[in-house]
Description:
four-stranded antiparallel sheet
Amino acid sequence: MVNYRLVHILSLCVAANGYIALLPSHHVSLKTSRRSTQLHSLYENHPHWHWPDDSSSSENYSNEPIFYNDFDLIAIEQESDQFWESPSAKQLASSIPANLRPTKTPDTTISDFLNTRISQVTKDSRQLLKNWRNGHTKSYGAFTINEQYLLNKEENKEDDPDSIPFDWVRRVDIGQYPRVACGSAHGSIFVADTTSKQVMGAARAVHYSEHSDEYTNALDEQLRQYIYGEYDGGGVLDVAMFGKNIVASAGREGGVKLFKLLEDGNQAELVPQGDVQALIPLITGALPIVVTCMKFDSYGRLYLGCCDGFLRIVTFPQDFVFGDGADLDSQDLHVTVVPHWSEQAPSPILSLDVSEELEMVVTSHVNGNVCLYSMKEHEDVYNMASGRREHVGVIGVWNPFTADESYARSVTFTSKESLHGHKHAVVVGGGNGEVWVNDIYPEYEESNTGEVFVDEYVQKFEPNHVGPVISLCSRPEGLIVSVGHDGMLRMTQTWIGLKNPKKATPWPLYGLGGYKKWIGSICVDDEGKRLVSDGMDDAVIVHDFSAYEKKEEKQ
């Protein structure tokens, strides 16, 4: 006599929507290419875990975790379809919620569900892209950095010499949304949650500012003009955030300071972690290297654009990057200086961007150059700086500002799906208000010529910005957001990978106004739903392009 047993299979159908289907089936055999793992004890007390006794079996069911297979199901073969017509099976099925009851063809049910889910995700993605292109967004001030100042003012403490002064936002970056970091005109660093609209932690007056004589200003006057033009709001030069709690910032005194947000229940503190020592000269009295721009990648590596024209990469210990502790020894930091293109003298870097898909970094320079670096760890490429094949180095140089000798103020990567695959480009904004885009072709690396930029694919945005293009960011499908000292955020659609790009020049979509001329940075979150910026005095602004979609769903 066959000893029937009930085998419970937990199938993680689609993690994207958090749906978990618990599928019981009778006497099934699994063909799999992956070994089983143990079900977590979280399900021990599940209300439907206590299955009724089976009189045909001498064994009792327990609440102990059992084994299941979570991936790579190749086939599920039912050995007895007639079992589900038996009285015992019907009694068993009645104790299971209707949405969790098995079918005779679970593979078909799962397939249908997956297809439905894919269709819904595709629809949502298209609607989100449409919102971006049409300017359908909910815009609001996410938080103010003067929360403590306003509280003191209500309590009549603003005249206290030790009270916190009114401050202005200078530079902003997104970590793991809704976490955002920003700097200030008084040299302070803040981490906030844009959902709760509250500052979680602050490190005050940690950088040079005109309001404090604690630090020495190492920023050259000419370089200051390149960075800020006629509108210098003072304070922090740049800020970068990784994950929920790691922040790096650069000030006018030079070097880079590191911070970590430590949380304990409802309490949080932004704890200083020291400086990147490799940027501080050993000669007494010498000023640290000024860092003008920075960005983290998804592995926690920090890329620095410096005033000496060199790109640097800071690698942190993994336990610091992905752990909760705050024990960082500056001696554990590894700093790599990337070789420079040797045909010209190094020119100060003003902006940079990182493409992990291409394993590339792009920088913009005072002399108008746009330099493309390869960061492939397992493949050598032609390095224009050394003339040899190496895994890190300059593989392409492009300068669209040779006519009027303008400087390249800002730069970003962009990408778009096309009939010929996933195509990429570099967009650069100049000190003269111009914005240019040029397709890049990674396969050109193998030619040993370094020609990743192709002149016939260069296109210019129209119209120009008024004043320098301070910041650029991009969203997939070729959407570019640019901002200048005219206080206008412009959305432009680019067309990448076309065989004849002259037939489809960049198409201006719309602008988002109301900003002050001191706007300094814009960025898009990893989900591609929100645009975050400074430029509104003491507040960080969020444009949520998914909010319009949610509003329609409620109607």
